[in-house]
Amino acid sequence: MIFGYDWEALIWIAVGFGGQGLFMMRFVVQWWSSEKERRVVVPVAFWYFSIAGGVVLTVYAVHRNDPVFIFGQGLGLIIYFRNLYLHYRGQGRGAAS
């Protein structure tokens, strides 16, 4: 027991923080890309970090049995996957024209 938590609780806390870290990285990647381009850029890595963080945080929310958190992250995942789909679909159209 550490800080009043058993090992299982500590592992789930680490999963939650890991998901939050992945989710935060999307902003770091977006900021870095925008700074390099000197304009606002949303790189494809932004969506991959969004999905990775969203999946881990949804699993954590399900474990915590938190319907508000589950709904928020679950809805976000739909949007992130859709944006990734639109990104790749748009690349195919650009290459064809």
List the helices and strands and how they pair.
Elements: H1 7-37, H2 44-64, H3 67-96
Helix pairs in contact: 1-2, 2-3
Describe this structure in words.
This protein is mostly helical and 97 residues long. The protein has one domain. The chain has three helices and no strands. The longest helix has 31 residues. It starts with 6 loop residues before the first helix and ends with a helix.
Helix percent band: over 70%
Number of strands: 0
- What Rg is obtained from the alpha carbons, in whole angstroms? 17 Å
Quickly give the structural class: mainly alpha
Beta-strand content bin: under 5%
**Residue ranges: pLDDT <50 for 5 or more in a row?**
none
Which key phrases capture this entry?
97 residues; mainly alpha; elongated; 3 helices
In short, what is this structure?
The chain has helices spanning 7-37, 44-64, 67-96. It is mainly alpha-helical and 97 residues long.
